[in-house]
UniProtKB/TrEMBL annotation:
Comment on bound cofactor: Binds 1 divalent metal cation per subunit. Can use ions such as Zn(2+), Mg(2+) or Co(2+).
UniProt enzyme class: oxidoreductase
Source organism per UniProt: Octadecabacter arcticus 238
Keyword terms, alphabetized: Cobalt, Cytoplasm, Magnesium, Metal-binding, NAD, NADP, Oxidoreductase, Pyridoxine biosynthesis, Zinc
Binding site for substrate: 130-131, 268, 277, 286
Classification lineage: Bacteria, Pseudomonadati, Pseudomonadota, Alphaproteobacteria, Rhodobacterales
Stated name of the protein: 4-hydroxythreonine-4-phosphate dehydrogenase
Cellular component GO terms held in the UniProt record: cytoplasm
Job of this protein: Catalyzes the NAD(P)-dependent oxidation of 4-(phosphooxy)-L-threonine (HTP) into 2-amino-3-oxo-4-(phosphooxy)butyric acid which spontaneously decarboxylates to form 3-amino-2-oxopropyl phosphate (AHAP).
Amino acid sequence: MKPAPRPVAISCGEPAGIGPEIAVAAWNAVGKDIPLVWIGDPTHLPAGTNWQAVTSAADAITATAFPVLRRDFGAPNVAGRPNPTHAQGVIDSIADAVALVQSGDCAALCTAPIHKQALIDGAHFAYPGHTEYLAALAGRSSVVMMLASDMLRVVPATIHIPLAQVAVKLTAATLNDTILITHAALVRDFGIAKPRLAVAGLNPHAGEGGKFGCEEIEMITPTLDALRAEGLNITGPLSADTMFHPAARATYDVAICMYHDQALIPIKTLDFSGGVNITLGLPFVRTSPDHGTAFDIAGTDTADATSMIAAIRMAAGMAHARTAPQS
């Protein structure tokens, strides 16, 4: 029996950014194929938006206009000017969306971009960003960030830290957990029965036998060898400068990189508009467009919704993979 459809929950994100307009644009593009429900204050939607109040996620499935689980943020919105008064409403929108997914009422979560400083100023937000807050809500201590498009999947083992700290923060335990979480997600969320993982080195030419650094010899290679002994299909450590041309990309399903820019520069070069941010290791599916609030163009009706549309499609696809029978 085919399971009943469930909507993708969309948290509103920063109201003064482009989140509201790309959410509406995405519903116009995919809403007939993928049911959606937006959680936020409808007065913050673009002028003239045809929206429909719903009282449950189930009601969004048959909605004929942009479906809104209405929340009152208590203050008007000005495009391009974040208002700290909205902070608690933004945070609650995320928590409400997570609750809907955890209860099974929604299939997956897609988060619109937030403005962390506004959340700190208005609600003393204690987390570095979405990922850490979602991990806390889910009770998970280890989660992994993936950036994905039809052209490439990348995972940075370390994320938002200064480059000078990468070699210190990059431990065998961190790399091991990152690889295991990524491998499990490729099987569960992407339907890849035997994932192929390519792992970059930290140093130029993957250290070149210790000439340019010893992290590959002392930590990375032993960690990979241990995982290979467990049956994982891993190549590396590889020289990062030869990993991303077309022939190389055809040999793996994901590239595990050692730091933020090593991972994000390739995918943003290949597919700047279509990249999707995914949090792996959560008990639910979470995706997000791979861009920020874009205050400079908010309210101008010029925002590109491509990444939001891709994020919604990917969320729905991942949710389906989680419920599909395993071969």
